[in-house]
Amino acid sequence: MTSVLIINGPNLNLTGRRQTDIYGTQSFEDYLEALRARYPRIVIDAFQSNVEGELIDALQAADGNRQGIILNAGGYTHTSVALHDAVAAISTPVIEVHISSILAREEFRHTSLIAPAARGTIMGFGLESYRLAIEALIG
Predict the structure, then answer these.
(1) What is the pTM of this model?
(2) Residue numbers annotated as active site
(3) Distances from the Cα of 54 to the Cαs of 11, 32, 48, 86, 138, in angstroms?
(4) Which CATH number is 75's domain given?
(5) Minimal CA–CA distance to 110: which of 125, 121, 118?
(6) 54-101 tens-digit pLDDT
């Protein structure tokens, strides 16, 4: 059975309550349940942390145990060489995801340090960015 791990970084535990004009009003937990219902033949697990090292540990632990990883590194997208290196070091494909379009936001958000190491990046489609990443992984 196909198994996908979604890894969410800092502040994504507040999705649905934080900056709803950018991130929407649906909680990630509710969206995750809808994803699982849509893809009953795929094991979809999720992990969230506000701690950079825990995100790295999750990437390394998933390597070889999942068919794909979806990573929304949040603010670490623009600052973490360590997350870039972790994505580059593993063989499991990683799709970088963002709920908003980082290119349509503040200039400091325009650069992703993770993108060069990821298989691809999906952004700007709200929570549906996660579904599109699943499609990219299983397609």
Answers:
(1) 0.95
(2) 23, 98
(3) 14, 21, 9, 11, 26
(4) 3.40.50.9100
(5) 121
(6) 999 999 999 999 999 999 999 999 999 999 999 999 999 999 999 998
